[in-house]
Amino acid sequence: MRQAIWSAMEQEQRRPRGRRQRAPQHVPPPQGLQQFMPAQQFPAAQQQQPAKQANGVAAFIGCLIVIGFFVLVLVNILGAIFSS
Of 29, 40, 42, 76, whose CB has the highest number of CB atoms within 10 Å? Predict the structure, then answer.
């Protein structure tokens, strides 16, 4: 069992890094625009960047709202303590 694990580890280390693994043989090649235009040049790939930025802005605004709520609660509690 140890030898099988060791040989699998050696085989993994011999595999070249950074290359995509080949698709299975039964998958048909892509058709349509994908044959003529690489995936990096698709308009859909370019539209994903603004969506990611919008998600980041929405998350930032949500965090500001939550922090603001906690600040208001803290001010009310401290006001109630020190108003006496």
Answer: 42
